[in-house]
## 1
Amino acid sequence: MTTGYQLKSLLTAEGEASLYFEAKDFSDLASDQVLIQVEAAPINPSDLALLTAPMDLESLTSSGSGYETKISAKAKPGAVQFFAARLGMALTTGNEGAGTVIAAGDSEAAQALLGKKVGAFGGGMYAQYRVANVMECLPLPEGASAEQGASSFVNPMTALGMIETMKMEGHSAIIHTAAASNLGQMLNRLCLADGIPLICVVRSETQKTLLESQGAQCVLNSQDPNFFADLTDACDRYHATLAFDATGGGTLGSTLLNGMEAAAARHLTEYNRYGSDRFKQLYIYGGLDVSPTTLHRGFGFAWSINGWLLPQFLGRAGIEVMMRMRARVAAELTTSFASHYAHRVSLPEALSLDLVREYASQATGVKTLIQPTHEG
Ligand SMILES: NC(=O)c1ccc[n+]([C@@H]2O[C@H](COP(=O)([O-])OP(=O)(O)OC[C@H]3O[C@@H](n4cnc5c(N)ncnc54)[C@H](OP(=O)(O)O)[C@@H]3O)[C@@H](O)[C@H]2O)c1
């Protein structure tokens, strides 16, 4: 019997949000399943949606130690209504991670993974063990460490998915916001390698310098007074008609559509009250800014705004595209798809209050890696 601890997240109807550990038996394996001893799992913004999004961090308290640690907070105003679908459910946490396959079901595909280091996704990775279907596993290249493979799915596949989307939908450049994120740095490396024009939008000079030091050719600071004029020039230069916005809230997405339209309008031969007929696509793929999305509709009528989520994109793209993307992630794991971590902690250390407040800030360069095999 293999038992181990998992990190659970609970929000109650009475307005208490808590994170705590629960023991689980991981012994039962179906024929196409493997048992992974988890060695590394990153805390990404999408994980925070389950971990800290409902919490009023001012009211955070902690009790117990080791795997008896529990942290609790009052729910933020409105959180009980917003998260109504999860009330009372003890949810597993951790979208992705990596570790060693220590047991396997009897299918050939499962047996082939025995003893291998794999990356995996699909939830439940903040745990000592995780049962995974073979299709959820990406065998890591020979010699790659679990840390190198921990972020091998969510951000790499999303960065590649953005490029695939661009090609599938006939665009020739990408505008990307929160562009100094781990994902943004990957996208920059991919676009440089593939010769794809990328307009990186950041919100500080430090982030601009960081991306430029990595070779980024067009980095715009949204706080710069000339931002809109520079955005319009860049959209014109690269014929940009596609934007991926990680912030979601506020006016940034609207500004991107207006910049694309202003660039198109430069080429109109006569005034048209309905704007240009150049089609502009904005994908909102993150929620870093939780304020309402505001549109200032100066961008004509040839536009669309959609959500973009990796699993839905993979369903649309099909298995062949997905396998091609996975092969590229495996081949370039330690180069194009390298991630950077500010903290490496054990499972219980991940609940230390100062650290929780830090990773909840979602700032550049403070990503935390949980290492469940470390006792800490
Ligand atoms: N839809 C999907 O399928 C999918 C898949 C993967 C990732 N994502 C999204 O991709 C984004 C990046 O993920 P990551 O793991 O690469 O992030 P990360 O490395 O943790 O970096 C987060 C970045 O967001 C910036 N940021 C935070 N709040 C912001 C705000 N209100 N306005 C503008 N920028 C803000 C930070 O800049 P500062 O230092 O200025 O705070 C930082 O550069 C996240 O939004 C995540 O949810 C979506």
## 2
Amino acid sequence: MPLILCCMAIKLSLCFSNLEASLRSLHIQGTFSFDGNEFAARDFGNQIHFLPSAVLHPKKVSDIATTIQHVWQMGSASGLTVAARGHGHSLQGQAQAPQGIVINMESLSGKEMIFDKGTFPFVDVSAGELWINILHECLKHGLAPKSWTDYLHLTVGGTLSNAGISGQAFRHGPQISNVHQLEVVTGKGEVVVCSEEQNADLFHGVLGGLGQFGIITKARIALESAPTAVKWIRVLYSDFSTFARDQELLISAENTFDYIEGLVIINKTGLVNYWRSSFNPQDPTQASRFTSDGKTLFCLELTKNFKPHEADTIDMV
Ligand SMILES: Cc1cc2nc3c(=O)[nH]c(=O)nc-3n(C[C@H](O)[C@H](O)[C@H](O)COP(=O)(O)OP(=O)(O)OC[C@H]3O[C@@H](n4cnc5c(N)ncnc54)[C@H](O)[C@@H]3O)c2cc1C
């Protein structure tokens, strides 16, 4: 048995050196790293750690296409897998490629974002861009994406491969319903533009496709006017039925909030004490109601956009 293991180890190391040599021979503008790739074996779950053989740091979309064409030509017998990695904030090794090739999409970020400020505004962005950067750039134009995630240090390609859900989804749908067009590198290494009208199967496969139907390299994101002011409210409930009834009422009402999200909280961590600062300090009765350590609470987080001249009436609204 040790002999077999030893042979396997020699065979694997020969494969790696062949792979390294063949990847080094590719004409690309970015780089491959073969050492120091531990970051590509980590994710937010921190449970699964598969080291890839190589990480591609692309400078151009053509670097990704060239690499995937090369893997395609090696054929399925190579057993080589390829995974795109955004910000690595998924779980269970989703963005990892055991002994394969990880594509570090963030090295494609920082490219110019191209705005169309017409009747239906949009922005064209690199899929390796973080949503937080897109927000900052959009605000310079008085615009903002319609649909968000709660946390914004995630890449466009990463959230579009899942769904991208937050408190705007009840109104606009998740992020994958607010994309007009994608540029995708397919499993054969072709660069294809797709939308509802053009290569629709690829478009719908890639959106929410967990990185299994191609590598998203660019996305056209739907925008709207950014609000100038926002009223933010948290409402705590101890009774689930009341919480759920209120949430259903609010998401189905016509004139309602702009953001509605429901949360379940186990009040073990002093979270509610911390949140108490968001209650009106002139209302001590309200602020002291939730001395509920260890209990399950339910929270509605709500926002309403308003214009500066509506500031006096927004509380009543
Ligand atoms: C603190 C935190 C808060 C979160 N909040 C929310 C939230 O409010 N709403 C929500 O919907 N989700 C939320 N998530 C989940 C998060 O949106 C997903 O895990 C998302 O995939 C992470 O994006 P990423 O850039 O880190 O992608 P990665 O983890 O790097 O990749 C995730 C998957 O997408 C694939 N992928 C990455 N880039 C591309 C690409 N360009 N083309 C094709 N496939 C690609 C990967 O191969 C992998 O399968 C949260 C996660 C964390 C850690």
